[in-house]
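Form 7-S
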Amino acid sequence: MKFHRKLAKLGRAESYHRGWRRAQRSIFRLPFRRFLTPPDRQRLSEIQQRYAGPSNPWAKYADIDHWLRVNRERVQDLKLHRVSRQQVLDLGCGGGFFLFILKRLGHSVLGLDADESPLFQELLAAFEVPRFVWSIKPFEPLPDLGRRFDWITAFSVGFNRYHPGGKRWDPAEWDFLLDDLQQHLEPSGKIYLALNPMPSGEYWTPELRDFFLRRGAAIERERIFFQNGLRR
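Output:
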């Protein structure tokens, strides 16, 4: 019973935080259409038409307006439309929607991702978002990216799965990555991760949750936010 009561409290806190984020999006609006010029729209429309259709494995990412809206909310939730110029590295940047919005807001951006999708290649080129081609693997450090970052982000994290079995990273793999990411951060830098759910529907095991908390994260459902740096 005590465990169920704790879950209920977490649920109420989560509902409060999500409601507050929605309210702030309304207060501090960010209409993404003002970032798109007519030439932008023409080029993106052509890309969308080429990749749309049920037979295309990347078709869902060709719904450009939808993904711009999703990433506009991400920008708003992290308050990156309300701060001065930041250096931002996005792991698994995909088509660059998140970084495109940040770039138009005046931030300096870099994506890092595997080179697997021709749609993502075209979108990154259209958005003029720079990308470093790299696959994140367990216990392998990131390359030298030539600068440090104020923010390192990763949304819908997929690199934490072993293939083909789909096994998720344990704390040891995450510990290595976090220590490595710290080498790429400014002293006051922040790390924000949004995990994909496991087959059970959970986002982390109790062991992994305890690990992230020990390292200094604030955890809310899929969100793992190191707002004040990393602890040992």
